[in-house]
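Aim 2, interim progress: modelling of the zinc ion-bound target.
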Amino acid sequence: MNKLTPQQDQRFENKLGTIFVTNHQKELAKQHLADELKQAEDPMEDIPYFAIGNRELAQKKPAGTHATCPKCGKKHKIKYGTGKDGTESTSLGFVDCKGKSYLVVINGKEL
Ligand SMILES: [Zn+2]
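Predicted structure of the complex, ligand included:
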């Protein structure tokens, strides 16, 4: 299980800004991000998905069952995180592509 460095954690918090997500969802996203960073060994700047404000997010279209993949441009089925009580959360959605997963949905909006 990978973890963000304190600096990456702080930058994640800054980029997430005022978007409302539960702590559990935030932890899922951090975990996901840490795994991505570990896999890609890319700096945080190469992961643009979090650089979005509430106003910008509000203008995005509601997510359907499938989302456009940031990697290959095709449509893939969206997978959602699961809350501690086992219910599926629509706050953060991901697609899998070629063995990696990518964050594509925040708060029900496709990025
Ligand atoms: Zn893809």
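Helices lie at 6-16, 23-40, 54-58. The longest strand covers residues 88-97.
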